[in-house]
């Protein structure tokens, strides 16, 4: 009976320990681990920002190439712009290294951003980005366009940029 209680207690502790760190992809390296004054946890890796708002919640993963921009001008708050344009505010400790690291890693992923006029007259935003651990360049167009418009725009952007 006592032995079973000890085993159960050890399993509970092991489960808590496992949940105290995010699940990382194979080869993903931790660069920074911080906790905000409000209990939010952040783990920055070479590939993504893993975060959770409080110790009881699940970890979330946001890849560096998926973050449009980083604004670190507001003191202990870090503002990320998500792929759909929505802002995400993270509270960090005073003197946190996370804002500078996030700005550097996001900046390294985004190779080029250009606003262009499509043949239909609509304005589109074209982005070239690369994940840190991959050599391939991913092109995205933030506008609804036909397959022909998309192919023409990407061919022109590749030729002008040399990417």
In short:
With 163 residues, the protein is an alpha+beta fold. Helices cover 28% and strands 34% of the residues. It has a domain of 52 residues.
How big is the Rg? 21 Å
Distance between the termini: 66 Å
The strand count comes to 10
Strand order of the largest sheet: 1-2-3-4
- Low-pLDDT stretches: 14-18
> In DSSP terms, counting alpha (H) and pi (I) runs of 4 or more, how many helices?
3
Main sheet characteristics: 4 strands, antiparallel
Q: Strand fraction band?
A: 25-35%
Shape, per Cα inertia axes: elongated
- Taken in chain order, the helices and strands follow as HEEEEEEEHEEEH
Helical content (DSSP H or I, runs of 4+): 25-40%
Which structural category fits the helices and strands? alpha+beta
Mean pLDDT: 82
What are the main properties of this structure?
163 residues, alpha+beta, 4-stranded antiparallel sheet, 3-stranded antiparallel sheet, 3 helices, elongated
How would you describe this structure to a colleague?
This protein is of the alpha+beta class and 163 residues long. It has a domain at 110-161. Helices cover 28% and strands 34% of the residues. The chain has helices at residues 2-19, 98-109, 147-161, and strands at 30-35, 41-45, 48-52, 60-63, 69-74, 77-81, 87-91, 110-117, 123-129, 138-141. 17% of the residues are buried. The model is unreliable at 14-18 (pLDDT under 50).
Question: What is the topology?
Answer:
Elements: H1 2-19, E1 30-35, E2 41-45, E3 48-52, E4 60-63, E5 69-74, E6 77-81, E7 87-91, H2 98-109, E8 110-117, E9 123-129, E10 138-141, H3 147-161
Antiparallel strand pairs: 1-2, 2-3, 3-4, 5-6, 6-7, 8-9, 9-10
């Amino acid at each position: 009976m006592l032995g079973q209680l000890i085993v159960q207690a050890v399993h509970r502790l092991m489960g808590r320990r496992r949940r105290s760190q995010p699940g990382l992809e194979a080869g993903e390296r931790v660069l920074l681990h911080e906790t905000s004054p409000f209990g939010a946890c952040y783990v920055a890796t070479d590939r993504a920002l893993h975060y959770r708002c409080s110790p009881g919640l699940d970890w979330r993963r946001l890849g560096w190439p998926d973050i449009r921009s980083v604004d670190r001008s507001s003191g202990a708050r870090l503002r990320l712009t998500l792929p759909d344009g929505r802002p995400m505010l993270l509270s960090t400790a005073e003197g946190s290294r996370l804002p500078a690291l996030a700005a550097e890693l996001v900046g390294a992923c985004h190779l080029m951003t250009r606003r262009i006029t499509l043949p239909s007259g609509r304005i589109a935003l074209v982005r070239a980005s690369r994940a840190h651990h991959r050599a391939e360049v991913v092109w995205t167009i933030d506008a609804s366009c036909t397959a022909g418009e998309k192919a023409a725009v990407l061919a022109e952007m590749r030729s002008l940029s040399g990417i």
